[in-house]
Amino acid sequence: MQDLKTKIARDLLAIQAVFFRPEEPFTWASGIKSPVYCDNRLTLTAPAVRTDVEEGLATLIRKHYPAAEVLMGTSTAGIAHAAITAHLLGLPMGYVRSGAKDHGRQNRIEGKLEPGQKVVIVEDLISTGGSVIEVAEALREAGADVLGVVSIFTYGMKRGLERLAGAGVKNVSLTDFDCVAQVAAETGFIKPCDVARLIAFRNDPSDESWIGGAK
Prior knowledge:
By secondary structure, the protein is α/β, with parallel strands linked by helices. The protein has helices at 2-14, 47-64, 79-89, 130-141, 158-166, 177-186, 194-203, and strands spanning 18-20, 26-27, 33-34, 36-38, 70-74, 93-96, 109-110, 118-126, 145-154, 171-176. It has seven helices and ten strands. The model has no long low-confidence stretch (mean pLDDT 92).
């Protein structure tokens, strides 16, 4: 899958869905300084990239989750990707709200889901893994057999990997932080010497020693 990883990395960089700025870090809501900004919603407004992404997600599902019966998107970023990918695969889809509605039937899971159905979750981004684990738990409580997750991009952070493993949630991504950083260096989006700084951030986001050129 290395060719697919590289292709998607190039796509995301080209439309600035993943944007590196190691000299002027972004600040996350948590207060952590980050050299990267990720907005995979931009893939939806770039038809060629969108095609690569959705066909790529379909490929991952065929390869890693051939028994999938239903796709469930995360709210809200995963909904469109789940819908398009489900169309390509000829599968039903739905989505999981961040919380139950406070009116009507008070659904959290939208779309028909039968107990025992084999489900794959579609997510745009995996960082610490918390939100997608909540989605998996909601689906399991509803009786679904959650096979795992497909996502566009993952940071590969230690905390996220450990949380997913602890929750028994498998994730397969189209591309990852390390691949995108390497492609960014090769194509001039960042300096080659910045790659080590970016990996240092990935290894421990709370350690800001990478800022200012520290390795």
